[in-house]
Amino acid sequence: MLQTTKRSTLLIITPQTPMTLPHALTLLQDMEEILQKPGIRDLVLDVGAVREADGTGLGVTVKIATNARANGQNFYLYRPSQELLKILQELEIDGFFPILEYEEDLLAHIPD
Predict the structure, then answer these.
(1) What number does CATH give the domain 2-32+40-107?
(2) What is the pLDDT of residues 1-53, one digit of tens each?
(3) What's the pLDDT at 112?
(4) CB under 8 Å to 59, separation ≥6 — which residues?
(5) 3-class DSSP state for residue 108?
(6) Cα(26)–Cα(6) distance, rounded to whole angstroms?
(7) What residues have CB less than 8 Å from 78, skipping those under 6 apart?
(8) Within its chain, how far is the Cα of 37 from the centroid?
(9) Could you tell me the CA-to-CA distances from 50 to 8, 12, 13, 108, 111 in Å, in that order?
(10) What angle, 0 to 180 degrees and rounded to 10, lies between the N-to-C axes of helices 21-35 and 55-70?
């Protein structure tokens, strides 16, 4: 399950479940549905509240980011924990996403 907040052409997506194997298929389906919404230029995955993630959940995130780019959309990872950043580094995908760590970073991407 995902919570979404739209601000102009920016959509903030907040997972409400762990980003792990048991939830990966639902996460993928929900995110792919969101990618089809018209008028979305920037997708921000807010992982600040995610307390559990694994390679499968992050693999889904890579797939969604790739699909977003193919659609001409920007994809950002927002507020990752130090633990999540460590997993990204271990999987060698930490450079795959632009990472927004602070609210100021996010606000800079919100269109006027």
Answers:
(1) 3.30.750.24
(2) 899 999 889 999 999 999 999 999 999 999 999 998 899 999 999 999 998 99
(3) 60
(4) 24
(5) coil
(6) 21
(7) 12, 44, 45, 46, 47, 48, 99, 100, 101, 105, 106
(8) 16
(9) 25, 14, 12, 23, 26
(10) 10
In whole angstroms, what is the distance from residue 65 CA to residue 51 CA? 21
Strand partners, 44: 12, 76
Q: What's the pLDDT at 108? A: 86
H helical segments located in 46-93 = 55-70, 82-90
Instruction: Report CA Rg, the chain.
Output: 13
| Angstrom distances, CA of residue 47 to CA of 2, 20, 26, 66, 74 | 11, 13, 16, 18, 16
Six token digits for residue 46:
């807010």
d(CA 69, CA 49): 25
**CA–CA separation, 35 vs 41, rounded Å?**
10
